[in-house]
Inverse folding.
């Protein structure tokens, strides 16, 4: 025990006594590690988020039926349950899915496409609330602009039909609960609850809608059939199987297969490239660190021999360079982290705004810092054990007579 | 009289492809309170023999080597080397032997005091005034808190002697301790050292040249003879009683 605590003390005394040399080792370590961390920070920040955007982009994951089919609620539910389906919602006939919107602040009546939506719709992933009942709507950006309305405004929606030879029009007040981002669609779209979409179709078919006191023929009791749906796969990697399964059930499907293939290959190639850079970087870093620490142990042979002469055991002697390498690893890593954080700050605060990015260009997770620390310490100690074992393995008398 | 060292047919070679140096010790006995000087020209194997006696160099072959410190048990060193009991060897070294290197061998990152304390710390010896008294005797009591780099060559060697003696070993081995010093300083230092070892009953084994003559009466000199053998390939040096 006395020997171990003495070795810890002596190794630290030597390390601080030779502060210039120790500083050089720390600097050498940090100057290899810090650029590697910045590289990974950028990979993690900009490249990963761009790639995620491509992979996550709902339009890439959308699966659209071509033409019209016959899908009932049970069929829709069956697909909704699947793990590879993120979202599915039925569509009604396109002709019946339009509504005329009018606001007090604009003098035109806007004919708008009705799309059913619900919680979890990837197209409206930024919305926090979704239309409930018949009187709520999320407007697309272009529709909101043309109607000159804002969040919370009330607008008038109206539907028209020819019924028993007469032209009829019904009105209902609708509240704008959200406005979709520009990127969602460039068309005039009103995202509404599926109930309103169904009501619109019933009304145009000349049927009555009891909830809204719209007159007409009594509602058909047969089960509801939808001609189409909106489906989003969980990820672009699920699209292919989903398309196959849907086609097996007789649906004609359109999906962005070519684009998906491109995104997939970009994803895979970038991952390969970064793994290559990571491996080459880690190997290079290990050798550079290992070589410098190993050389340092060689330099210390005489002092290690003196320690053995004084009576330290060989096994304890190995601890001396191992501990010093450990100090270098910890301090070098700390310096590299500081340098990295400085650069991260510079990049994110000065470069990111110029590129009009709303997210960090460069960042690392805590676990990445710990990985870097782990690698550094393991390599440092490994190199020191090799060098230390060599120093401890030779006769003490050998090292003593060196110049 | 106690025999401290007994060596029989101890051989250490430094041969590369059959060419080089061979140290032979046919038979040596060193008894307690005896002081030994190895006299000989450079390269005759003085340091090599001292390293063997200090247990930091393993002989290539040996019939017998035993060590019996006056204040400890008898050890069959030949057997310990054969069984590669390094820990035991360093334990004996730590406890019974003090070694002074030609170049001092002080650790540059420790103060003189800490250097001198180190052997005592390793043996868990108590902090008493022994550091102070040995430093005073050797004339370095005012340098104790300096780093070795700030000391003169003579002061460094004095500190080196203090470190070798601080844990009260019964054997002091010194390899040309004054070679780097001027003759007057060398004689001053050795005068003090001789006084100390007389007072502490220490066996001194040293390699030396110039000043040895001064203490001729107190030092027994081992005979050294060398020859070139094996077609001029091997320079063989023998030390005898």
């Amino acid at each position: 025990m006395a020997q171990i605590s003495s070795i810890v003390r002596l190794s630290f005394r030597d390390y601080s006594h030779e502060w210039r040399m120790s500083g050089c080792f720390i600097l050498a370590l940090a100057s290899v590690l810090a650029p590697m961390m910045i590289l990974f920070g950028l990979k993690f920040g900009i490249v990963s988020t761009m790639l995620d955007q491509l992979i996550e982009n709902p339009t890439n994951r959308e699966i659209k039926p071509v033409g019209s089919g016959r899908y009932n609620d049970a069929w829709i539910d069956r697909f909704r349950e699947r793990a590879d389906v993120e979202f599915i919602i039925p569509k009604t006939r396109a002709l019946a899915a339009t509504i005329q919107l009018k606001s007090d602040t604009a003098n035109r009546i806007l004919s708008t496409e009705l799309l059913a939506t619900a919680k979890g719709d990837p197209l409206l992933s930024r919305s926090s609330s979704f239309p409930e009942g018949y009187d709520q709507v999320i407007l697309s950006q272009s529709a909101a602009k043309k109607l000159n309305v804002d969040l919370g405004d009330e607008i008038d929606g109206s539907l028209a039909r020819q019924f028993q030879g007469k032209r009829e029009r019904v009105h209902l007040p609708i509240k704008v609960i959200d406005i979709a981002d520009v990127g969602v669609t460039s068309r005039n779209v009103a995202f509404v609850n599926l109930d309103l979409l169904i009501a619109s179709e019933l009304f145009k078919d000349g049927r009555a809608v009891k909830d809204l006191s719209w007159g007409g023929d009594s509602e058909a009791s047969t089960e509801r059939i939808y001609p189409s749906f909106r489906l989003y796969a969980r990820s672009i990697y699920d699209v292919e199987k989903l398309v196959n399964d849907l086609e097996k059930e007789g649906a004609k499907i359109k999906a962005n297969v070519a684009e998906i293939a491109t995104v997939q290959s970009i994803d895979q190639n970038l991952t390969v490239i970064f793994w290559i850079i990571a491996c080459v970087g880690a190997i290079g870093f290990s050798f550079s660190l290992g070589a410098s620490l190993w050389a340092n142990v060689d330099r210390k042979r005489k002092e290690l021999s003196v320690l053995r002469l004084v009576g330290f055991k060989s096994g304890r002697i190995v601890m001396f360079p191992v501990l010093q390498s450990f100090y270098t690893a910890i301090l070098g890593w700390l310096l590299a982290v500081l340098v990295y954080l400085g650069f991260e700050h510079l990049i994110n605060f000065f470069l990111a705004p110029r590129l009009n990015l709303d997210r960090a260009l460069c960042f690392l997770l805590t676990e990445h810092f710990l990985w870097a620390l782990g690698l550094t310490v393991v390599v440092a100690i490994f190199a020191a054990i090799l060098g230390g074992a060599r120093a401890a393995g030779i006769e003490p008398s050998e090292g003593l007579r060196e110049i | 009289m106690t025999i401290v060292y007994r060596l029989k047919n101890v051989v250490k070679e430094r041969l590369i492809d059959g060419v080089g140096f061979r140290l032979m010790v046919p038979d040596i006995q060193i008894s307690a309170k005896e002081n030994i000087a190895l006299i000989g020209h450079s390269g005759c194997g003085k340091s090599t023999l001292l390293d063997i006696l200090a247990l930091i160099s393993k002989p290539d072959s040996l019939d017998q080597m035993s060590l019996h410190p006056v204040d400890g048990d008898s050890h069959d060193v030949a057997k310990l080397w054969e069984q590669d009991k390094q820990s035991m060897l360093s334990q004996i070294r730590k406890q019974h032997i003090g070694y002074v290197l030609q170049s001092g061998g002080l650790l540059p990152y420790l103060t003189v005091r800490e250097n001198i304390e180190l052997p005592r710390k390793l043996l868990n010896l108590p902090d008493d005034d022994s550091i102070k008294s040995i430093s005073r005797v050797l004339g370095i009591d005012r340098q104790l808190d300096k780093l070795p780099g700030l000391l003169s060559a003579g002061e460094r060697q004095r500190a080196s002697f203090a470190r070798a003696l601080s844990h009260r070993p019964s054997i002091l081995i010194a390899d040309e301790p004054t070679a780097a010093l001027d003759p007057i300083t060398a004689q001053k230092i050795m005068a003090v050292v001789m006084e100390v070892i007389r007072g502490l009953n220490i066996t001194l084994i040293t390699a030396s040249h110039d000043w040895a003559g001064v203490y001729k009466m107190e030092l027994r000199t081992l005979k050294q003879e060398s020859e070139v053998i094996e077609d001029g390939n091997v320079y063989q040096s023998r030390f005898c009683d």
The radius of gyration of chain B is 18 Å. The longest helix of chain B spans residues 183-200. Chain B touches chain A through 29 residues (CB under 8 Å).
